[in-house]
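Let us practice reading a record.
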Amino acid sequence: MTALTTPAQPGLDASARLVPWRRMAWVTWRQHRLALAGVVAVLGAASVYLYITGEQLRHQGFVSYGAGPGLSLTAVLFQVIPPLLGAFVGAPVLARELETGTFRFTWTQGFGRARWTVATLAPLAVVVTVAAGVFGFLFSWCYGPQIDGKYVLSPLAATTFDLRGVTLAAWALVAFSIGVLAGILIRRVVPAMFATLVAWSGLVVVTGVFLRRHYEPPLVTSNPNLPSGAWVISQQWTRDGKPVSLSVVDQVLRQIGATQTAPGHCP
């Protein structure tokens, strides 16, 4: 049996042959150009809609408050932007390499697994975050007009709060990170995408129900004339500044009703 071997060369510095970052950037673009093009196309089309709608709201005005339900429905549809970014951009990045086994080749090409991971994830995360941030500010501009000093859709409403300004950018980055983590742990593209959607949905519910009201201390007031767009967390009847039960309120209302229907009083 004859074998061909190559003697070791300890004097050769392997770091001198490292692949430059610019070449890895080109590889990242080649691998994920379709996903990035999809992000630009979807957010671009939605941005055109927001721009046209915003111009109409400012120049033509609202015929009535009936414009609100249509905008509310649109805002609900836009809520799917972060989870879709996480599922279709974040989850496949590493899951596809691990599922197909190409990571064995990729991580041995003179670039290193750590540098390859950074060069792959960082540009995608930046693009996703910036694109979502631009869309978020355009959303804030479109949904900003007021009627008689009142918002058609409150900035604090559940359908709009997560889509305005840097909030959408933050949610997009979180969804992308969840997708990447799911891809690393599950190592299969489709299950990782599904897990991303489930995990993001659970995080949104927990944030909206338990965490969001603690972002700032709530303002307690007895003034019924609240500012436009205020988010009412709770309300209750009080007497001398102390809460009273519904039974006490019902008793007072019964007494008022009895007084108004008594002889000598107009109903």
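A brief commentary: The chain has a mean pLDDT of 80.
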